[in-house]
Each structure stands twice: as structure tokens, then as C-alpha cells.
Amino acid sequence: MSLTETLTETEQIVQDNMDYTLFSWSKQKGIDPIAVKYAEGIYLYDYEGKRYMDFSSGLMNVNIGHGNQRVTQAVVEQMQQVSYVTPTCVTKARGELGKKLAEISPGNLTKTLFTVCGATAIENAIKLARLYTGRHKIIARYRAYHGATYGVMTAGGDPRKIASDAQQAPNFVHVEDPYCYRCPWGKEMNSCNRECVSHIERVIDFEGPHTVAAILMEGESGTSGCIKYPPDYLKKLRALCDKHGILLIADEVMSGFGRTGHWFGVDNHGGIVPDMIATAKGITAGYLPLGALIVTDKIAATFDDKPLMLGLTYSAHPVACAAGVETLKIYEDENLIENAANMGAYIEECVEEMKKTHPSIGDFRNTGLLGCFELVKNRNTKEPMAPYNAKPDEMAIMNKVAAKIKELGMYAFVRWNYVFIAPPLTITKEQVDEGLAIIAEALKIADEYVY
């Protein structure tokens, strides 16, 4: 570009970002980010005025929608009083948020350690499980993502970790997933013997039950493909944990705070009470960074008379806690959790109709407003439109689908052969129709490759 050329505002913004910042999970050249000027409700707006439906709620975190000024006001009021205190001090917002979390959490999960994000919530859950049990191994699923810091990166099975995780943190053991659409044991859910559970029991026996501190499971599966647990899966895992004195940690970073039609994903599973809930995202709807590790009163009481050797500079940050207090009020005042359940059911009805005209839809898995299409080239063979951990050249078809979705005015999360649906919990039926129409148009591209 010559010195005489003048950049538009959008071009200057994009160039500054490209020249001086790094982008997560992406090559750094040749990308085409949306320059977001403002956002409102379920929509993002760029500097040219183009509107995009945010069908992934940012990164499945902007649950209350964009631009809710109640949170802005709560944050401003808190900053006018005090913007930061050390975690050894307390604030009204910290106590209010902790009390509310105890109220909405299942069973006897009544005490919260505040962190700064989901990864730090799960890191501290792992540490606390080891401190509490005196054991060292953590069992987790291959098809799960728990964060990008070293401990939780190893705990997850997501292949994005491989390049930088050559040594891996020790004492993590991975197990197969209850992936009923592609069952590792070749079974059907209605007639299987829950080999997905007996498999974990064998792994526990092989590893030594006395060495296993915790089993780490998502409340509901997220970016690994919204894999639906069999109805009794978590119940059986809870029984396994109780049998062997193993803690059950629920990763509710993505599935928490109304996303699945309940406060937490585990609430969909018949009264299951984990020993810990690690969460973030929806606790402030992404307006400010905040994470939380919620534990049982029994675990908390262990440290009444001995130090809890966990800590973060920004633990219980007063401004983030104030945002959390107001966000949780918004869920209730605006009936967002009920709306998530209702809109999820409506989406499922609509997708059943879409399947009739889009042969590329192999499976659709959804809970509340956390769902994804799994696209295939053949419904009988289930050959995926892009393979697991697809290389760039294997993403050609899905890249075309993603490009069409963006062109038609939607911001959505597309990964491998998955197209995710996770809009803000404020979405209406009319907006669902608008969004699914965009996806349906993009699916015509995938349909051309079906045989």
C-alpha cells in the first residue's frame, strides 16, 4: 500500500489489530476478522453497519445478550466505590454473589473460591481435589476441552494441545466418550450395557482406585461436539465415585447459567450433585472475566483449621463480582433460563424439518441452547464432512459452509464437521427462524457433497 492511500476506519482498525496483536487458535495471516463497532441483543454490528446474528453468544458466554446496561451500571457503581481489594479483604458484592451461588447450586455446594476464568476455576478444582483426597490422578474424557493453561490443557483431550503439550502435566488419565452417534463399542443406546461406564470402571481398577482423586466431566458437552450423555450416565459415574471415594468435578464453564435450560448442566441429570462445580462464562455473561469454583460444605470444612493453599491476585475482584450479582438477577428477572429451555425445544422441532431437506445433517445434538449439527457425506456410513482434528486441506467443504454463514450475516462457531447453535438466551422464535434460515442456506453447500 502506498503512502498516499488512505485507509477506511475499518481497514485501519483491522490493520492495527493484525500488525500489533496475536489471534488465538489461528494462523496470523490471511484471516478476515469482523471489526465490531457495537453489539445489542443477539446482534453484532461492524463499522459499515452490517449486522451479524451472534449465534454462538461470543464464545458461548454472552448468555444475557449484548449491551445490557444494567450490568454497565452495576460495574460503574462498584468502581465508584472501590475497584480492587486483595482477596483477604471482603466486599458486599463478593458476599452477595457467593450467597446466590449457594442458593442456585445443587445439593450442599455452598462455598465458592472466585477465580479469573474457566481455566483457573478448573486448575484450582484439580489442586483442591488432590489436597482434599491426598491422591494424585485425574480421570477425564478425550473429547473434552477444559481450557488452555497447562494443567487443564492436559486434562482435556482436545488435539489443539498437542503442539505445545509435548511433556504434558502428569497424572491425567483419559477415557472414551459416551458418543452414542459414533459409539466406540458399536452399540445402540437403547440396547447397550453402558460400556462407556464399565470402561471407566476398568480404568479405575487398572490405575488403582486409591490413586484417583477425581473424575472431571462437563455438565453438558460443549465444543467437543455437544455429545449427549446417556440418561443414566452421570448417575452411574456418581455411584462409581462414591464407591471408591473419588470426587466428581463438573466443568460447567460453558454449560452453566441457563445455557442448557437449567442453572447448571448437571441439573438435567436427575438430581446429580457433584463435589465441585467449576464455572465461568455465563456468571458475568462475558461482560467481565470471572470464574468460580463451588464446593461442598464438607470439602470446605476440611480447611476450617488448616490453610487452603490456593490463591489468585484477582480472586473475588469486586468489579467482576458486582457484574456477576447483576447478571444473575437478569437471568431471573427476564426469565432467560425458561426461555432457553423453550427455544431449545423449538429449535429441535425446526431441525427435524430441516433434516428432511438437508441430507448433510447426520445428527443434531442439543440441550437448551447448547447444540450442534454434525454434517456427514453419507447418513448410512456416517462419513464426516471433515474428519476429527481435520487438517486445513480437509476443511475445504466446511470452510465454504462457514464462509456462507458469515456472508449471510451470522457469526457462528464452525469446527471440523460441526456447526454450533448457542445464541444468547434472550433469543425469540422469530430470531430462531431467521438464524436457522441462514444455516439452512449454507447447508446447501454441504448437501452437494452427499452421496
Q: Can you describe this structure?
A:
There is one protein chain. The chain is an alpha/beta fold and 451 residues long. It is built from 13 helices and 16 strands. It folds into 2 domains: 9-64 and 336-447, Aspartate Aminotransferase, domain 1; 69-333, Aspartate Aminotransferase, domain 2. It is globular, with a radius of gyration of 22 Å. The chain has helices spanning 9-20, 57-60, 69-81, 92-104, 118-133, 150-155, 195-207, 233-244, 297-301, 318-333, 336-357, 396-407, 429-447, and strands spanning 36-40, 43-46, 51-54, 109-115, 137-141, 172-175, 212-218, 247-251, 276-279, 291-296, 361-367, 370-378, 383-384, 410-411, 414-415, 418-421.
Keywords:
451 residues; alpha/beta; Aspartate Aminotransferase, domain 1; Aspartate Aminotransferase, domain 2; 2 domains; 13 helices
Number of helices: 13
Can you identify the CATH class of the largest domain? Alpha Beta
Anisotropy-based shape: globular
* End-to-end Cα distance: 46 Å
Tell me the count of domains. Answer: 2
Helix content: 25-40%
Topology as a string of helices (H) and strands (E) = HEEEHHHEHEHEHEHEEEHHHEEEHEEEH
Determine the CATH superfamily of the largest domain: Type I PLP-dependent aspartate aminotransferase-like (Major domain)
**Sheet with most strands:** 7 strands, mixed
- Beta-strand content estimate: 15-25%
Instruction: Tell me the Rg in angstroms.
Output: 22 Å
CATH topology of the largest domain: Aspartate Aminotransferase, domain 2
Architecture per CATH nomenclature, i.e. the level-2 architecture of the largest domain: 3-Layer(aba) Sandwich
The neighbouring-strand order within the major sheet is 4-10-9-8-7-5-6
Poorly predicted ranges (pLDDT <50, ≥5 residues)? none
Give the total of beta strands: 16
